[in-house]
Amino acid sequence: MLSGASDPALAGVDVVRRPALSVSTTDWLEADGYLLGTPANLGYISGALKHAFDQSYYPLLDATRGRPFGLYIHGNEGTEGAERAVDGITAGLGWARVTETVVVSGKPSKDDLEACWNLGGTVAAQLMG
């Protein structure tokens, strides 16, 4: 994801990486788009990503409406529940999904890695206009 978003051909896009437990409301507000990644834990998003949204959801309402995002999920089972959770949160925020979710089960294959690269590149390209 990050390597696709950081491709030199996407001039003018600065990628800032924040672990979910340390992302602040200011970080969310200063970003023009989002690449979200989470394991599927017991059929849901990680506690860290849920916490990140819980801490900032209301301040982000309206302020981030229409921003592009992409999602990567890694898990063996229950990825549908994790995707539904992110769909509900991002729909409430009014974010715009710009590409299909990348779901990886088990060890990532070459195709999975390419899909993640494309995910990052697609979100970054949306920021270029």
From TrEMBL:
Gene3D superfamilies registered for this protein in UniProt: 3.40.50.360
Protein origin, superkingdom: Bacteria
Gene Ontology MF: a single term: oxidoreductase activity
Protein name: Flavodoxin
Every NADPH-dependent FMN reductase-like domain range: 27-105
InterPro entries in alphabetical order: Flavoprotein-like_sf, FMN_Rdtase-like_dom
